[in-house]
Amino acid sequence: MALTTVPTKLREKLGDEASQALVELINEATRVQHTETIALVEETFERRLVESLSQLETRLDKRITDEVAKLSIQIAESKADLMKWMVISIVGQTFVILGVLAAFLSIAR
Question: Could you tell me the pTM of the whole model?
């Protein structure tokens, strides 16, 4: 916010040139303060953002690691079940084939 006028009594005491210089000095100080405040706020915001993103990344990495471990366990369990059912199926098919073969051989005699 720029200062545009100087009170009349102050202007009479200082004169027009000094009043104008005072206005310019106050306006420049205000601009500098505004710029420094914005820089400080930007720096604070950036630091908080980096901290938040770092925490989020850490939590996300942990969660991904946990989920991958769970999936690995589920895949291993699924493989074990699949192997179990394959063995049961092969043994069952073998007995069926042997039974059919025995029946065929007993009929052929």
Answer: 0.53
